[in-house]
Amino acid sequence: MMRAVLLGSAGSAGESPPGSGPSPRDRLVEQLTRAGADTVIVTSDPAEVARLAQEASGPLLLCADDLVAHTAVLRHLATSPVGPTVALVLPEPPAGDRIGVREDRGQVVAAVPPDTGSVTGGPVPGEPVGGGSPGAGAATGTFGGALRVGTPDLPALAAAAHAVAAARTVAAPGGATASGAALGDADGTRGTPVDDLFAALAGDNLIFSHRVRLLVARRVRGSAERRAAEAAVAAVPSEPAELRLAVKERDDLFTTYCVSTWSPHVTRLAARLRLGPTGVTALSVLFAAVAAALFGLGGRPALVTGAVLLYLGFVLDCVDGQLARFTRQFSPWGGWLDTMADRAKEYIVYAGLAVGVERSGLGNGWALAIAAITLQTVRHMTDAWYGVLHDEAARRPGPAAGGGIGARLSQASNRVQADTGSVGYWLKRTVVFPIGERWALIAITVALFNPLVSLVAVLVWGVLAAGYTLALRTLRSRSMRIAVLSTVDTSAHRDDGPLARWLGTRTRLSGPLPAAVLAAFAAAALLGTALARDGTADRRLVLPAALLVLVAALPAGRAHAGPLDWLVPAVLRAAEYLFVIAAGLLGRVPAWLIFALLLALALHHYDLTARLEKRTANPGSWVYGLGWDGRIILLSAAVAANAATVVFAAVAGYLLVLLVSGALTTWSVAARSGRRVAR
């Protein structure tokens, strides 16, 4: 249940003359109700907001009575999948007594008090974290007078409201109050209650930014401004604008020009057919699965048809998110399914290409597919944690840095990203080999050539992209000097099992990243030995190699506070996957079964990543999933006992069953709790 609080202030134009129809305040009450509020409370007392925050069991939607906007603006704010707390941000710079905001990576990192040229804190836009000038920086927008405060942040809202109420009761000369001074106003005048509450929250709490695009939202003073704003709202039809807003503002080159130019028409059709985002996701999976089957079948007609279906499947993959944003249908299950389906589709296509290579006699297709799934999964693990690192860097300044190449790279990257649409901008987005470009490359190469060329092309571009991103991110993260793994349940995201957790509490070994790198090198050496001897290597080599890999468990309980420790989960994934491949070769496991186990492991680890992104825990999963350390021991024993094929199949099946059961329990519970999840 969501309540809305319509906050007025002295002198606001919230009422209309008698007989002139519904007042602006009444219209806002109606809009807030249509935006999803169960009840709307009208007040001008921050103490009342404090009481409501203490009593509320769901989010509160705060709105100033001087806001004139499309109802869709308020509905989008109320249903925003990010959060839990989201502020409406207008794109124009602040003027007069309006509070400005400074944003970074979709977060409000600082509030800009009215009539000032400085901010209250936070990093500087365009500057690397730790390398900017503290306290300097212009606003990137204006607070729009509306704020959705999620349930976890209600205690902070109550405290902020109590502070604002106390400040407003302190008399100042001329009848003003001290709250304006708290906002940094030069003349000591107070802001509106919503402005005061936002400023009080922005200092110490994570607030996400919801920017107004295409639709109209304005804060007005007096009847003339209100009439002009209402005319601007009436001049912009809501539904076409909402449909355009459903398309991501910034996407990759192929998606922008070859998908998003026409996918909104499919989105509108799906909405009219009452087809939900999950249904579109299922259709996308079906298209990709049929394309994979055609790639395995071979023959030019099948390959061309498969390429077309793969492209259409990717269009549907974009449509499911657009449909969720257009219809505001966000759910934990849908968000999780979208994340998992994207990865499963791509890896099923790799399997189809591998079968096609084998059937055509072009080479060892499974070896290429195994390499591709390993490379892509490890890359995704670095993407996830580097994103967390950047989010953390955006919300705090960090210590002063002496510049260096990392800081200069950050500045250059920010300049390129700001130059939207330039050649450099598109090159930067394309070189990292995003999903749209991967699917386009597969479709084009398989239609024009054959599955072998597709797999080789994916591997070559993937290796180049991995090298580029790893080098750049390593340098930039060193300049940030910020740790993120130390702020979460490290063992859960490492995927540690009982043994690693036990060892981590009983050893004093530090340096989690060097230990993980040693484990990866040990697994790579075992794989190299197996490949060099063409599967004739002594299978007993797997036991000493496993012991070396398990060294990575010794510092599991130590703080992962180094500037590069965000790489630890990805390096552990690399170590485990390389060990699985080597153990499979030594145990004479069929190549398709090695791929199947890697697919099950990848989906298991994507599930962990999805839980990180969606902030949904799965207590106990590390016990049932054995952890990377438990799986290493189990596979090593299986190879030594000459039972690798049976154990590989059992572990793959077990992980898939665990994945499905965990999804049905965890995400259904999240759905009942009313959480929204971004797609």
What does this structure look like?
- The protein has 679 residues and is of the alpha/beta class.
- It has three domains: 3-244, Spore Coat Polysaccharide Biosynthesis Protein SpsA, Chain A (Alpha-Beta Complex), CATH 3.90.550; 246-363 and 397-481, Up-down Bundle (Four Helix Bundle (Hemerythrin (Met), subunit A)), CATH 1.20.120.1760; 488-679, Four Helix Bundle (Hemerythrin (Met), subunit A) (Up-down Bundle).
- It contains 27 helices and ten strands.
- The protein has helices at residues 24-34, 46-55, 71-78, 154-168, 179-183, 193-202, 222-235, 238-245, 253-258, 263-272, 277-297, 300-327, 332-360, 365-394, 404-418, 423-431, 435-448, 451-480, 490-494, 498-506, 512-532, 542-549, 568-586, 591-614, 621-624, 627-640, 644-672, and strands at 3-7, 39-43, 60-64, 67-69, 86-90, 100-104, 107-112, 141-149, 207-211, 217-219.
- Helix 1 links the parallel strand 1 (3-7) and strand 2.
- Helix 2 (46-55) runs antiparallel to helix 4 (154-168) and helix 23 (568-586) runs parallel beside helix 26 (627-640).
- The longest helix is centred in the middle third of the chain and has 30 residues, at 365-394.
